[in-house]
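User: Predict the structure for this protein chain, please.
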Amino acid sequence: MADHNPTIVSSPDGMDVAAMRKKYKTGHEAFVEDHLVAKEPIEQFTDWFKTARQLNGIEEANAMTLATATKDGRPSARWVLLKGYGKEGFKFYTNYESRKSKELLENPFACLVFYWAALSRSVRIEGRVEKLSEEESTKYFHSRPFDSQIGACVSHQSTVIESRDVLTTRDAELKEQYKDKTVPKPDYWGGFIVIPEVVEFWQGQSNRLHDRIVFRRPKDGETADGKLLHQGDDGWVYTRLSP
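Assistant: Here is the predicted structure, written as C-alpha cells:
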C-alpha cells in the first residue's frame, strides 16, 4: 500500500517543515459573493478589519506587510502599521531615507498584505503610492507618544551603526533636550498613502480550495458580464479567482 504521508526532511535540523500545516475553514464556512457586505472594497475591508480588531487573539490587526521594489524590479518587504484608511487609500508613516522609502520614491507602486491567522483571512492591496502632505505628517507625528517622537529623531533608518549604544546614547540626549519642549518632526520623516487599484479578500479552506474575491478597477472598454466579472460600486468591478 502506498504511503500517502511520507516524512520529508526539509530543514538542516531534520525537522519535517513540509508537514507543517494548519486547518483553516471548512466547506460550510466558505466566503461566497453573497457574504460581501458591500460591492466595493473599502467597506468590505472595514467589516473584516473590525472583526480582526475585536478578536482577542489578534494583538495588532493593523500590522501589514509592505512590499516594494527598485526600478529594476528587485523586491523587498517588511512589516509596518496601518495608521489610517478610507476611499482615498491606506496610510503609513516612516523615515523617508529608509530603503522602503527610497524604493517607493523611485518606483511608486506597492503591495500591502494583512494576515489575520486567527480568522484564516488575508487582504492584499496593490496600488500607486504618494507622499502625504507635510501638514498631515506633522499632525500625526505630534500625536505619537513622546518616546516614539524621540525614536524617530534618533534613528536614521537603514543606515549602518557601530552598536546599539549609538542609539541609546542619542536617545538619552534628545530626551533631556526636549523634556519640556515640543519635539520637531524631522524633515526626513513622514507618511505615504497607497491608492488601491486591486484589493483581494482571501479566506483559507482546510482542503486548500481557498476563497479569493478580488476587486479591481475595470480596464478601458471592459464590461461586466455578471458571470465571470461583476459590476461593483464606486467604479469597481469584482471577480472570483481560482486558488
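The longest helix spans residues 41-54.
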